[in-house]
Amino acid sequence: MSDTITKGPEAQPEDNTPKAAPEKKQKPERVASLWSDALYDLRRNPIFVIGAVLVTFLVVLSIVPQWFTDGSPFDGGACDLANSLKRPDAEHWFGYDVQGCDIYTRTVWGARNSIIVGILTTVMVTVVGSLLGLLAGWKGGIIDSILSRFTEIFFSIPLLLGGMLIMSMWGEGNAVSVSVVMAVLGWPQIFRIMRASVLANKNNDYVMAARALGAGSGRITFRHILPNAIAPVIVVAAISLGVYIGAEAALSYLGIGVQPPQISWGLMISDASVRFLNAPHVLLFPSAALSVTVLAFIMLGDAVRDALDPKLR
């Protein structure tokens, strides 16, 4: 008698071949450059994020102040002497000024002239100072000497003192005239920075290579020199924007900047300063708005400086 052996399913031969690990998707490498590294750092800098949010809000506030108020301070019924110097309450958060005008509405609309002066002055100063500094640094020789001596004349005039003198002769003050006056006195700082940056970059290897390949003077200047020399100018311009807003407030406070019936924080502070003891809220809110605005732009400028300065990395 033979035993019947029941065979099960054939055992599969064990595969001892090492399996290849699943391929990981490689992230695209970040292109290394001054600007890409600076942008990468800025996105991770909380000071820059906070400053950028505040600046964006203030710019929107200055463009469309009516989005944040029920009406305009220029309306006929916007002020009522019966409400003169009333303190803040649940309906009117900032209270009223001596003319019975709502301080919140005037503070919001006052942002327009202050922000316009800061941005317009910075743009004019940056454009004029950068172009003249680029010309002086690249050409050198007699052109550099003439522009440098001409710059020293303006550089010796203090911003506020010169602004007071020119605005007192100008007469009517508004955001554009104040911006022009401060730009006339402020461009030498940008000129010096751009000139020094061009002198430091114009003998680098990439400039020599471009010249050896037959590139013209204009192409070298604007395609190679300018992009590599503009970084310190951007840093100073970003920080100076807040300074110009403060300077406009100082000129308006002295009565030679933006003139009524226009509104600016400097004018509001000037009107409120004599009533601080019996109505401190009239001075508090426009002063706080001015301080926050200047601080926001300085925070933005400091963050940009930290990102663009290799020594601070």
From TrEMBL:
InterPro entries: BP-dependent_transpt_permease (IPR050366), MetI-like (IPR000515), MetI-like_sf (IPR035906), OppC_N (IPR025966). Pfam families: BPD_transp_1, OppC_N. Keywords: Cell membrane, Membrane, Transmembrane, Transmembrane helix, Transport. Residues 111-301 form the ABC transmembrane type-1 domain. CDD domains: TM_PBP2 (cd06261). It comes from the Bacteria. It is a multi-pass membrane protein. Residues 1-28 are annotated as: Disordered. The chain crosses the membrane at residues 47-68, 115-138, 150-170, 176-194, 229-247, 283-304. PROSITE patterns: ABC_TM1 (PS50928). The keyword Glycoprotein does not apply. The keyword Cell membrane applies. Its main location: membrane. It is found in: Cell membrane. Belongs to the binding-protein-dependent transport system permease family. This is ABC transporter permease. It comes from Kitasatospora aburaviensis. The lineage of its organism: Bacteria, Bacillati, Actinomycetota, Actinomycetes, Kitasatosporales.
